[in-house]
Amino acid sequence: MSDRMFFNFSFFKIDPKWRWMADLAKEESAKEVDQVIRNSKIKCRTYSTLGLRDDAEFLLWFASDSVEEIQGVISKIYTTVFGKYIVPSHTYLSSTRPSIYAKSGKTPSFVDDSEPKNYCIVYPFIKTREWYLLPLEKRKVMMDEHITIGHK
Predict the structure, then answer these.
(1) CATH number at residue 102
(2) For this structure, is 47 an active site residue?
């Protein structure tokens, strides 16, 4: 993996008709999606949002060296049986590089095969022009707090 990474957080709603499918058909179509992801060059983690959000049932969190690879996998997922029953409700794309704020120089992540956490909190964190006008030391203090909270 390169120093620059792209992360995609895609939230999906599931068509209620999916619940009426036979269990074996649902299981086979889940395996089909799993194979699409496993045969790709990108990393993926999944999270259920059932009971936590009314606008999505699950999240696919992708990490890749290229946006095109992420788009390719999502495109292939839509061609599966399961893909015909899902609709995106939110999609976030970010581009990252090693943090100048993290003390270790590297933030733990599933990109480095760290253990999955039980929950994934996704919120847009946009660094504006005003952010970059702050002195570096002040930004470091703010980011230390942000990183500490994120690790919990």
Answers:
(1) 3.30.70.1030
(2) no
